[in-house]
Amino acid sequence: MSAGSPVNLVVLVEERSADEALRALLPKITPGVAFRIAPFDGKEDLLRKLPHRFREYTYYWRAVNSRVVVLVDRDDDDCLELKAQLSRMAKEAGLPAEAVLFRIVIEELEAWFLGDVPAVHAAYPRVSLDLVKRVKFREPEDVPGGAWEALEHLFQQHGYHKKGLAKMIAARDIAPHMDVENNRSQSFQVFRDGLRRLVSEEN
Known about the structure:
The chain has 8 helices and 4 strands. By secondary structure, the chain is α/β, with parallel strands linked by helices. Helix 2 (43-60) packs parallel to helix 3. The longest helix has 18 residues, at 43-60.
């Protein structure tokens, strides 16, 4: 690998709605960085296949200056234990720590959307910008009843997603409007900042 060669980013996600969102978000977070997103069929499928994927990436990561990002929902897992499990998989496969980033989405991808009310409003204009002032939505990672359920109920109240929240459609609608510098979701902020460090020349 020659000095100064461009970074190639591989992002592993557990579902296709995250794939849809990141296609719009990654160019805003790390402009000019080439990326490929690999969606899996749920968290269980992702965790089961990770050891094999890590071995593949270990084989060529240095030659092509690749960086690997694993993005998973916390669900009912302990964050520290889940991250330790992921780190152990990477270490056992021989993938160096500086080549991989693990990020746990605290309350599903929908918390990222609720962290950017103007983007939700731009995609679904009947949803008021005043949503951010409501106590229920003040903390995107701590919405009573869960972010997914709250977002579905909110949309249906305003005549959207009447048959249930279509996650891929919502991601496709909202993500292009998102301001990556001003998202109130803490897990999004941690993902954004960690991703930028991962691809920086100093890493």
